[in-house]
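Record 1 of the preview.
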Amino acid sequence: MQNKHKILIVGGGSRENALAWKLAQSPKIKKIFIAPGNPGTAKFGENVNIEATEVAGLIDFAKSNDIYLTVVGPEDPLALGIVDEFKQNNLRIWGPAKAAAQIESSKVFSKKLMQDANVPTAKFRNFSDFNEALEYVKQEGAPVVIKASGLALGKGVTICQTLEDAENALRKIMVEKIFGESGKEVVIEEFLEGTEFSAHAFSDGKNFQLLPCSQDHKRIGEGNTGPNTGGVGTIAPLLWVTKENMDFIAEKIVAPVLKTLDKNGSPFVGLLYPGLMMTKDGIKTIEFNSRFGGPECESYMRILKSDLFDIFEACIRGNLNEIKIEWHDLFACCIILCSEGYPGNYEKGKEIRGIEEAEKDENIIVFHAGTKVVTNRNLLTNGGRVLGVSATGESLEISLERAYKAISKISFDGMYYRKDIGKY
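->
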């Protein structure tokens, strides 16, 4: 009889909830631990009170609990070098090493890598001096895109329609330091117009396999208005992305970047996520992430047919080219229920009702993002993005209809969500 394995998932958001949900279906897994996890992940394994960035504590836990494989969900521990440290301790772990994870943790590194790999992207300059950055913006004119170089929870990008907007953004990032050290350097890019969408690729460092394309909705307001967030809703797959588009993404974006990283001595093992834009001049790369997108992962896990554990194993063993990744012939969406005020200030501790009622529809899974349970067993809000309501259907329209019907059964004070996911 085949050995069953113990798995540790690092992270505590809806992405990790979705990974736990999917991994729990594998016949090769005996037990799942999630650090720190949330009330949603607790349904599929045991939550461990260790933060995702407490690398030493996670190593101790993996050693003392005979963990076969650790799976890293969020970007922060990857940027800290959790993969390198686990490997130094002879522990198996899925995710990119620190050098490769810079593709997300440093916008400057990422843009220079794209330049080296000849990847289609927006024209850019990087600055660490406020006055020089401001002078450049005045020369270039608006609209312009300003990005904090470091990690900023998906909120470090500002689309500036006027020079005044650009000066305000630079002042907040570089002078007021609203993102701390993440804003000591900025990237200023030309403004691209078009439709944003997401590609994801599993990689073993040399070989890769693309997932179907998905679309995230980053802006908080309906009609794609308001400030950027970490993502408030996704749909997958995208019918308007052609085979030719997928070939272009594989050959001109993913392959050259992976090849360049490998050549530079930092092969990327894990999940590479290029954020893309379909412009009048073709597909351009906006950014790279070193892990699954937030709401995208929740949609992907609902339509992934293959055993996720097998995919992680193939990435680590370097034989991803030898397995066939299969997908259900379905559409999926994930709509995020937010706290009023997100991505700005918001209140926590609001009681959540109706999840069980919503999940009576077998097509619905509610993933927890920012929730907590208190001693009297009530479920409370504990973040800006609170829940991800995911649905599947034979068409995109059916999946969206099911998701919104499920949302009508869920409530908490100040609950906010976009009612136009899939329309933009």
